[in-house]
Amino acid sequence: MWGAGFATGIGVGFAIGLVVGALGKQQKSWSELTDKEKKTRIGLVAAGAVLALAGVVVLLWRLLTRA
After folding, report:
1. What is the mean pLDDT of the segment spanning 54-63?
2. SS3 string of the chain?
3. Dihedral angle computed from the Cα positions of residues 35, 36, 39 and 44, in that order, rounded to the nearest 10 degrees
4. Spatial separation of the C-alpha atoms in residues 12 and 53, rounded to whole Å
5. Residue 53 near residue 7 (C-beta atoms within 8 A)
6. Could you tell me which residue, 20 or 10, shows the higher pLDDT?
7. Is the pLDDT of residue 27 over 80?
C-alpha cells in the first residue's frame, strides 16, 4: 500500500517541478535575483521542506499504528 503513495508523491513532485519551470528554462543565479525573488524562492523551499517532513511523519504514523 505504501508503494502507491510513494509513486503518487513522485508524480506530484515531478508535476510541481514542471509547473515551477525548473526543468524548462534557465534560472538566474542567486546574485542576479531581486530581493522579492529571493524571498519567494526561500519561501517555496521552506514550504517544500515542511510538506516533505509532514509526509514522512504521516508515513511513520501510518506504519506504526496499523493493526
Report:
1. 89
2. CHHHHHHHHHHHHHHHHHHHCCCCCCCCCHHHCCHHHHHHHHHHHHHHHHHHHHHHHHHHHHHHHCC
3. -140
4. 15
5. no
6. 10
7. no
User: Which residue's C-alpha cell is 521542506?
Assistant: 49
CA–CA separation, 6 and 59 (whole Å): 10
Q: Could you state, in order of their start, the residue ranges of all structural domains in the chain?
A: 2-65
Burial of 51 (0-12, 13-18, 19+ CB in 10 A): middle
Residue type, 64: L
